[in-house]
Structures are given as C-alpha cells and as structure tokens.
Predict the 3D structure of the following.
Amino acid sequence: AGSPSRMSCAILILKYAIQTPLGLQRMSSLRYGIPFWLDRFPKRRVPDYPRHRGQLDTEVAIVGGGLTGCAIAYAFAAAGMRVALFERDRLAQGMGAVRSLGLLRHEPDADFSEVAATYGVRAARRMWQDTRRASLDFASALRRLDLRCDLEIQDAIWFACASDREKRLRQDLHARREAGLSQDGASWLTPAALKRETSVSGVGGIKTRDVAHIDPYRAALGLASAAAGKGAAIYERSAVERVRAGRKKVEIRTEGGSVSADRIVIATGFPSSEFGALRRHFDLFHTYMVQTGSLTAAMRREVGRRAAMLRDTDAPPHFLRWARDDRVMFAGGDQPAVPDRARPKALVQRTGQLMYELSVHFPAISGIPAISGWDAAVARTRDGLPYFGPHRNYARHLFALGHGRHGAGLAWLAARILLRAHLGEPARGDEWFAFARTL
C-alpha cells in the first residue's frame, strides 16, 4: 500500500477524532496513548514493587524493567546469581514491549541477503538460526513457567503487492536456501495461495510456520515474578543516575541510594545519556499501533482464515496480528523520534493513516472503527541488528540494545547471550550480536 494523500489523512483525522483539552483527539470509543495490553490488565492486579533505598550489594545489577530486562533477571537468577533489577518508572510500562504487538518472530528484522553481503553467509546463517532457536525456546519457557500471557502459535507471512518487491522476497528466500536454512519452516506462497490464506491480493510471499505471539505485558510481569521467586530483587520508580566502573566493582547511584555490583547490565533498548558515546550506533524512531473493534460476520467471511501474522514489504513495513474477539492489531507508520510536545498530534495523524492503509490491504473491513491507538519508541541499529554483549570501552558492563522490530523472542536471546558472557562461556556465534561485529 502506498502512503495516503494529505486529503485522505485529513478526512480520516476528522473521521476518527475531535479535539480535547489535553491536545489528544478522540471519539467516545477511541482511546489514544494507552497500550492495549496495559488497558486490558486489571489495575488491582498490577504488582507493586518497592523503591530502592539505602545501600545494596549484589552480583548483577540490571537497568531496565521491560520484557528484555525481566527475561535477563530471570535467566541470571535461575542460574543462581544475586540479581537486582532497577526500573525508573513502573515495571514493563515504558515505551518498549508493552507497546509492541508481542510477536515471537523467527528471524531478525533484516534481509538475509543484505546481512550475508555485509558479514558473510556463515555469520548470517548463524544469526538466523540463533534467532529462530531463541523464539522457540522462549515459547517453551513461557509454557514451562505456566505464564498466562496468551501464547498462541500461528504462521507468519511476509508478502509483496508489487512485482519488484516480490522479486526481493524470492531472492531472500533463495539466499536462505543456498545458505543451508532449509529447516527454518519457510516456504513460498503463490498469489493464489496468498489470497486463500490472507485475502490479500498480492503477488507472492514467504510463509513461516510455528511462529507465536503473546501478551508482552503479562509475559514481562510473569518473568519478573519468576525472577523474584528465584531471589532477584525488583525495584520500581528507582532511576539509575550514575554508573562508575572500578577494577573490581561497579558503583551505581540511584535516586534512593547506592549499589555495588560485580556486573551491570544495560537493558534499556537505547543508550541513556550515561552512554552517549554509543548513540552513534543507533537511530531512534516512533512507530504506531491501532486496534480495531470486532469484525462483523460479513467481514470475517471476506478476510480469510485469520490464522497468520502478516508483514508487508512497504518501507517502513506494516505488521498485522489477529487479537481475541476477531479484532485486528495493525502497526506501522514509522517516523524519526517525535518530541514529547508533538506526540499527541502525531499519534492522531498516524492512527488515521494506519486505518486508511489497513483498509487498502483489506477492503472488506473498510469502515471498521479503531478502538485504541498508541505509539512506541524503537531503537534501531545502523545495520538493523541488535547489540547484545560487552563493549571494549565499558568495563564490567553488558548491553542489550537496539531491539528494533525484531520481535519479543530477542528478549530471550539477549538473556542467554548475556548470561554466557557473564560466565565467561560465550557460544559460537554470540560475537555476531555484539559490538565487536562493527568495531
């Protein structure tokens, strides 16, 4: 789908919104700025972890209480380490996972052929294998821990609506096969098969089996609770203000006290001001999501099996997943990071734009109302791949940064890579997810 015209966007904004004193725009049934996952979670059940006060000595301090930080806390605590996690606001309520679609994708958010051209076929193959394994292992861990996070296995389809983009998809699938990734569950969809699977009138696509999606907020809370059950200390509303690494310890100052740790893990997605020198590796942008009301019976008959998550080849891409009660969740509209004062206006405009673009892909559901719209801040590295591991300029530090649109499965991959790095037992291929690949 192409971008809507200015007139189309203006009509959609008028259709979906009226001005409010807060600078947000809404109709009575459309809520802006509140992620679906947070809105549906009973407020009385939101856990309340303490603020950090006084002095604390621990083995590993983790900064960042999103899905990745909580996965890392669980992995380290389950391995028998003394862990303390620090979140500046409320646990898992930041601009990351709780605002995502909760997809456990099997591949990085990058073209295999481009990664292979940059780092070599062997490195690219290893990255794809490790990402797929992490996604599958994460789903298994969520089941094993009995975390009720609406885990559901579905297919994933990456499709094209133009011949030049169809050629790109075919080349990418061919490059994977040539590299020996024939066991990744990916296959080609003809236009007829794509139409049958999704009702999309495209020219072809790649179908991947056994992908999953989750409620990322419930998953993060469940992992934090499991980590606490293993002895981890969880602190909310406890911003880290300063970090100083010495020869034997890392000294950390929080809003309420001080922490001495053997190691610090930075799991904030984007480097904070404390690590300003690392920011040149990243671009920060905002992406947007909408959720619709329930499809009518007539609409359900027109939109196919509703058994797969979808991604198109637009630049930037759109993602779609089906939610409960036959609702649609649709994401896209990426743009460079918007200043806080301009976010409400941008959110209204992008919500209207996404609803228009959704109707282009699925004409049968044109006119369905949006129920909620929200944004998310996403850090993307210059080469499109995340950074998990140490950095030569920061002693006693480990980083989990640049998650981009790779999906929730990378939280588990980061946890496993960083645990091995802390133990001094890196696995073959871990170096391709670290800063070393570009330094």
